[in-house]
Write a structure and sequence with these properties.
four-stranded antiparallel beta sheet; Rossmann fold; about 40% helix; Arc Repressor Mutant, subunit A; five-stranded parallel beta sheet; 8 helices
Length: about 230
């Protein structure tokens, strides 16, 4: 589960962003002024900071500058009503990783956050093939067979299985799956992951109601139980 810190002094916008990222199964922290937000970023080690520029107490520019001066490398996405090029350049020069100008699409913002999370967590080496039970999957050619017969998997299903197999035995969060399989696509949520897992179980598990390989880790995501080669 990724932790997102939202430093935003507009109550309605702060609530809307918090609700959106909570719905996507992120842990959300909020602050309404720069000084509090800065301290929360230092103390709580979030995975991404969404930082408004126009804040009481300490501007977003100053928050970002102090975080980078302290050696905090957490990705920072700056959020502001000001769209001048000079502001964007200043924010990026101070160490911000991305910049969004109000008004904005929440779905675009979510996609940008996913991209930051993806860049902050380099991918594991992905397998080329999988052999398990009577199933054979070649991830390079996107070919799959079950009991010698073609197994119809979508491109996203191939990528989802490949990611989980690369992390065999580990719990992989829905958010990470979404980040790495769907990336910048904006019209998806963590429920999309659940739907794809259910479809995969129906195609790959002997008893989809009692899966042996695609295991649910409650409150987190999914785990591949084994069987790579």
């Amino acid at each position: 589960m990724s932790r997102i810190l939202i430093i935003e002094d507009e109550p309605a916008l702060q609530r809307a962003l918090a609700a959106n990222f909570t719905f996507d199964s992120h842990e959300v922290l909020t602050a309404s002024d720069g000084r509090t937000g800065y301290q929360m970023a230092v103390d709580n080690q979030p995975d991404v900071v969404i930082l408004d520029l126009m804040l009481p107490g300490m501007s977003g520019f100053e928050v970002c500058r102090k975080l980078r001066a302290e050696g905090v490398t957490t990705p920072v996405l700056m959020l502001t009503a000001r769209g001048e090029e000079a502001d964007r350049i200043t924010g990026l020069d101070l160490g911000a990783d991305d910049y969004v100008t109000k008004p904005f699409s929440v779905r675009e913002l979510s996609a940008r956050v996913r991209a930051l999370l993806r860049r902050a967590n380099p991918p594991h080496a992905l397998p080329d093939r999988l052999r398990i039970d009577d199933i054979e999957i070649d991830f390079r050619s996107y070919e799959a067979r079950k009991s010698g017969q073609p197994l119809d998997l979508t491109r996203k299903e191939f990528h989802l299985v490949q990611l989980l197999v690369a992390r065999t035995g580990e719990a992989v969060s829905r958010e990470e799956i979404l980040n790495k399989v769907w990336g910048m696509e904006v019209y998806v949520t963590t429920r999309t992951v659940d739907t794809h897992v259910a479809n995969l179980r129906s195609k790959m598990e002997r008893d989809p109601r009692h899966p042996e390989h695609l295991i649910t880790v409650h409150g987190i995501g999914y785990r591949w139980a084994g069987g790579t080669s």
